[in-house]
């Protein structure tokens, strides 16, 4: 135990609580069914302040994603996309976080973890996922087909604005390729 009065006197400053992470404000899909979520998705749109994306947005290619449920909790994500005329497959594993609908994507090296939240999905036509690395957040819209309805696109744009991103950093992917 500390001596009496240590750290309790006036004039002693308390450290302010850390600012709330943007992702902490995002609710995960309540009725998320991983077996229904599994399957093929198309990346329809991304909202991100990533400078690389801004500089290379003219080179976006149609991107397909296959979600497989492992061990009833882990997700295996296989992304297929074309880069410089060649098809590439990127494999990732989303590990379950403490709350249902939240996942952790571990990268190589310090500070390379990405927090992932399945924010909204109807399992059959669209899914909105949030990604946060450090203090940066991005939002992705996936569809079971490469096109989604205007209603879903509007919903996505509302979610993008709700986390402080704008139309200027929202990119739609081509439906061909």
TrEMBL record:
Record-annotated Lipocalin/cytosolic fatty-acid binding domain positions: 38-172
One MF term in the entry's GO annotations: complement binding
Signal sequence annotation: none
Pfam families: Lipocalin (PF00061)
Superkingdom in the source lineage: Eukaryota
Compartmental location: Secreted
InterPro entries: A1-microglobln, C8G, Calycin, Lipocalin_CS, Lipocln_cytosolic_FA-bd_dom
Any one GO biological process: complement activation
Entry keyword set: Disulfide bond, Secreted, Signal
Protein name per its UniProtKB record: CO8G protein
Organism: Chunga burmeisteri (Black-legged seriema)
Gene coding for it: C8g
């Amino acid at each position: 135990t500390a001596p009496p009065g240590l750290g309790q006197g006036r004039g002693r400053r308390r450290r302010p609580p850390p600012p709330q992470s943007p992702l902490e404000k995002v609710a995960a899909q309540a009725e998320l069914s991983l077996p229904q979520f599994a399957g093929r998705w198309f990346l329809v749109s991304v909202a991100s302040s990533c400078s690389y994306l801004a500089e290379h947005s003219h080179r976006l290619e149609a991107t397909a994603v296959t979600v497989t449920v492992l061990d009833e909790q882990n997700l295996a994500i296989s992304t297929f996309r074309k880069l410089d005329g060649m098809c590439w497959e990127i494999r990732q594993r989303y590990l379950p976080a403490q709350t249902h609908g939240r996942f952790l994507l571990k990268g190589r090296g310090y500070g390379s973890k990405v927090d992932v939240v399945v924010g909204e999905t109807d399992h059959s036509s669209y899914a909105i996922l949030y990604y946060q690395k450090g203090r940066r957040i991005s939002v992705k819209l996936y569809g079971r087909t490469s096109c989604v309805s205007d209603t879903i696109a509007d919903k996505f744009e509302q979610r993008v604005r709700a986390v402080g991103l704008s139309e200027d950093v929202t990119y739609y992917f081509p439906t061909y390729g």
